[in-house]
Amino acid sequence: IAYRTHQSQSRLIDLSVPKKMIIITNSSCSNYFQNYIDWQTTRNISTGLYLTSDIYSSYPGVDNPEKIRNFIIDAYQTWSSTSTPLEYVILGGDDEIIPDRGCFCAVGETIDLRIPTDIYYSNLDGNWNADGDQIWGEINDQVDYLPEVHIGRFPAETAIEFGNMTRKIQYYVNNDTYSNNLAIMFGENLNNNPLTWGGDYKDDVATHIPDDYILTTMYQRDGTFSSLGVWNALNDGANVMNHMGHSNETSLLGQGIGSVEQLQNTEYGFLYTQGCYPAAFDQRTSGDGESIGEHMVTTSGGLFSFIGNTRYGWYMPGSINGPSQFYDRQFFIGLYEANQPNLGKALTYSRLQNVNAAMNNDVMRWCYYEMVLFGDPTIEVKYPDPTLPFLTLEGYSISDIDGDGDGSFNPGEILRIYPIIKNSPEAGTAYNISVTLENLPQGIILLDGPQIISQLLPGASCDPSFYFRIQLPQDITYGTYYLKILLDSSHPITGLSTGIRKFDLSFEITMVDGHFPWDCQFHTKSAPMVYDINDDGTLDILYLNIFGDAYYINNNGEQFGGFTSSPQQDIMRSSALGDLTGDGIPEIVYSSRTGKINAVTLDGTPVFSYDTGKQLIFTPVIATLSHSGTDKVIAHSLNGYVYAVDSNGSLLPGFPVNLGSSIVTEIAAADINQDGLMEIIIGCQNGTLHILNSSGEELPGFPVNIGENINGSPTVLDNNNIVFGTNNHMILISPSGEILVNKPIIAAMASGPVVANISGDSALEIIFVTINGMLYAVDQNGNDINGFPLNVEDNFTVPPLIVNLDEDIQPEILLTSYQNSLYAYNNNGTRLPGYPFITSFNGCTPGTVCDLDNNDLLKFVSGYSTGVVVMNLRSPETPIKPWITYRGALNRQGSSACTGYVANSDPYIIPPVNRLEQNYPNPFRQNTTISYETKKEGKVSLSIYNLRGQLIRTLQDEYIPGGKHSIVWDGKDSMGRTVAEGIYLCRLKTAETTLTRRML
Predict the structure, then answer these.
(1) What is the DSSP string of 767-801?
(2) What is the CA 67 to chain-centroid distance, rounded?
């Protein structure tokens, strides 16, 4: 073609001003390019925008692709003799906007009539359809193999997609960031027989990538390739990426279109792949879903450019000299060894180096046709910058040292996050490193702003004492939480950002104490007993396994003693604790399926072992059955025998008693007839309720026949009424045997009922949960308390506990499911904030609520199938704890009397007589006022503690008169230092009680 005498073919399209690059798009998309054209002009890339509607009406052609090509030929010829010849073309849209030209190629029996071939628009000689059969690209169709211009395509359709492409390209060009220095080679398995690895292909290409790059390989061959690992690498951002592996139009690099659309990276690079079909942008192949290569450049994250195949890529089994490899190799040679740094020029270079093979070899021609650039052909690939740092988060630790320090993260705590930040030894020095946290879950407060590290030399890590603090809200729900840590630094020359790297952090907010669970791998059915076993002033835990072996565990989850049982036992329920010998030291009592009733001292020394010859599968009871001054042991067999044994292992007169029916519940003991000795209350499977005196005789009015199987253990109220359950009823009986209430219930009780005053009136209520999760709270007339019953929607085997868990004056109901999940409810049936706490510790035993750490904070101690779990309830201990362990007390008597709890007659006064108000303001910044009231003169101590129980400052420690008082705390410790933001405990101590409030 003679270019120097060429005249423009169109009067509608003005070609009077030469442009180095042209963009072709339709009228609907033209506005999307204006800012991009202005930006290119600032880079000395003069750019013209031309519309398909003008081209179609101005240029000849058998179809629209030929008209577009004829326009490009016209522009190229018109400007060829000027100082600004046309060098680059961007096809501005997907094939619905800029149609593809499909070309013919056949490799053996693999034939494609329409391989999308964008070089039809760049290789401008010949008409590619010399025989006129409308099948372009045949070997005799005068195909031009020598490009006149360098071409790329923006395969976008919407404003968002075009905006994403232009934004990412501009960011790549305008910023010098850490990702400039990163290169990644991806290699998958290609063939098993013979074994062929994509990693071998990539190792060959990598020899042409400069050593100054920080090169990472992710190869299936080496076990370093995974879908998640690739996604993370893409999401972190890298400059140069090269891939060899199988793919299709919807899958590449182990990613699908969905995972590509989830990429959130803010550093962008380009990817060259030899895979099959990832760039099949034609509608006839990828449809409305579009190809995965298109998504990689049009999504908000991902890549700024993509080079891939519109049809099959070609490899060679057992060799690295597959046809596509020749183009891949030459592309990188062009970039780094032949001074062709532009993506378009490097791709052209690759084709030219293989042009002879393409003209003479079908498979090489196929590869020549199908390669496409999604992106701007003018963009130069960045070379490594040795002054740039490369910051990584090597790891992190999280501490609750500012909380209770147990290693378990609980609502309300302050956490310290210690990131380990390292600068790569292959990178430059990092200056002014900014470390920030983002994506904090709702309610979590960052107590420290962005932290600055002045400098990190290559290979250096930050000071291990470097940390952030976050404040967890008191009402945060339990579970795993995620946030991000952001690392940035200043370029040593420009002072600009070197690029933000984002890393995920996570932590679990849990009730489980950090020192637990404790596990011995031996099963238990027995409730752990909480008692100061070693008499050191702190509570311990006794775990008894099914064989009768005891383990003593301190509040740090450490075993410090115990004993073994010989011979081996078979314990099916809980043990009891009480003083049998009168020495002031309790003994441990348990009954066994072997028929034995055993009592041992705390060090395991036998006190007695009585053999009943019957199966004992329930909890023994320790009770006062005589005036001897020592308590006795009561146990019962499955087949209906009741035993009472003294500390010598001798039966009491009148025992055993054969009740003539199986017993499938626990028993209770209480002074029913007010004679100073306790009676034994037993419910039988034949529906009879028995009350035996200390001589084994029935009380007058008993037994009472209910007519239903009694399977809910009897419990005695403060007025000696007795409540128990059947399969479908709650029964309340008077001390004389009168049936007071026969209330239908939905299912059998879980173990049995408990009793407490939860409504604030003068009478105890009855609280129980059914095995299928229906929670009842009933008054002694059989009426449901407002808000009950309610469906907890879980399964239960143990009864509730009753304890004050919030700052009001009424106790709450605490439930433990079969898998040790905790539920808590107010006295109106509303769920307590922060609950439920769901766990999967299978095989729940009854639990205990206590101040295990002696820090005035409640914990819940429970057993699971092979160990002990402790939950941080995060509630201050108050005197309001009417039912806090199984059967009311460690003696397992199952009565309100055994709990030792006596409610105040005035429900609006917290017993005994003192009140600590909530500080105001709360939260506070500079100071806060603490008000309290004492009912009589005496010594008062008012102190501030942190959540670890450490004393921060004593505000008052003196004798004061009764009445109302207030004091101002200025937020400083005893040394005059302002304390860190967070939660603190204000503790008022008098001779009668200790009261605690939380302050923020």
Answers:
(1) EEEBTTSEEEEE-TTSPBPTT-SEE--S---S--E
(2) 57
Whole-number Å distance between alpha carbons of 240 and 335: 11
Cβ contact 551:559 at 8 Å: yes
pLDDT value of residue 991: 76
Q: How does strand 529-531 pair with strand 951-960?
A: unpaired
Distances (CA, A) of 505 to 189, 404, 444, 501: 32, 22, 14, 13
**Which runs of consecutive H residues, i.e. helices, occur in 113-175?**
159-174
Residue 630 DSSP label: S
Upstream peptide bond of 411 is cis (omega within 30 degrees of 0): no
Q: Residue 554: in which H helix or E strand, if any?
A: none
At 990 the pLDDT is 82
Residues in the chain: 1000
Give 994's strand partners: 989
Q: How far apart (Å, rounded) are the C-alpha atoms in residues 469 and 450?
A: 11
Helix axes 323-336, 362-370, angle to 10 degrees: 50
Dist. CA 700–CA 38, nearest whole Å: 104
Q: What pLDDT does residue 11 have?
A: 52
As a whole number of angstroms, the distance between CA 489 and CA 879 comes to 55
Residue 465 is predicted with a pLDDT of 94
Cα separation, 554 vs 557, in Å, equals 6
Q: Is the peptide bond before 450 cis (omega within 30 degrees of 0)?
A: no
Dihedral over Cα of 851, 854, 855, 856: its sign: positive
What local confidence, expressed as pLDDT, does residue 2 receive? 39
Q: Which two tokens stand for residue 939?
A: 């010594």
Q: Which of 927, 739, 729, 944 is nearest to 856 (CA)?
A: 944
CB 843 within 8 A of CB 486: no
**pLDDT by residue (tens digit) across 97-150?**
999 999 999 999 999 999 999 999 999 999 999 999 999 999 999 999 999 999
Tokens of 469: 């603090």
Angle (CA) 151-153-155 rounded to 5° is 170
Q: Distance (Å, rounded) from C-alpha 374 to C-alpha 296?
A: 9
CA distance 325 to 369: 15
pTM, two decimals, is 0.71
Classify residue 12 as exposed, middle or buried by CB count within 10 Å of its CB (0-12, 13-18, 19+): exposed
CA nearest to 307, candidates 324, 282, 287, 285: 324
Chain center to CA of 733: 50
Question: H or E stretch including 673?
Answer: none
pLDDT of 412: 83
- What are the tokens at 765? 């209520």
Query: Tokens 């078979």 belong to which residue?
Result: 570
For residue 391 the two structure tokens come to 């910051």
Domains defined along the chain, listed by start: 159-374 (3.40.50.1460), 391-509 (2.60.40.10), 518-899 (2.130.10.10), 915-999 (2.60.40.4070)
Query: Do 515 and 870 meet the contact criterion of CB atoms below 8 Å apart?
Result: yes
Instruction: Compute the distance between CA of residue 692 and CA of residue 695 in angstroms, rounded to an integer.
Output: 7
Q: Which residues of the chain have pLDDT under 70?
A: 1-12, 902-914, 948, 992
Q: What is the pLDDT of residue 903?
A: 55
- SS3 per residue for 150-162: EEEECCCCCHHHH
Q: Which distant-in-sequence residues (6+ apart) come within 8 Å of 291 by Cβ?
A: 155, 249, 250, 277, 278, 279, 280, 281, 285
**Which three-class secondary structure state does DSSP give residue 817?**
coil
Spatial distance between the Cα atoms of 191 and 171, rounded to a whole number of angstroms = 39
C-alpha torsion sign, points 849, 850, 853, 857: positive
Helix/strand/coil for 895: strand
DSSP sequence for 419-476: EEEEE-TTSPPEEEEEEEEE-PPTT-EE-S--EEEEEE-TT-B--TT--EEEE--TTP
Q: What is the C-alpha end-to-end distance of the chain, expressed in Å?
A: 83
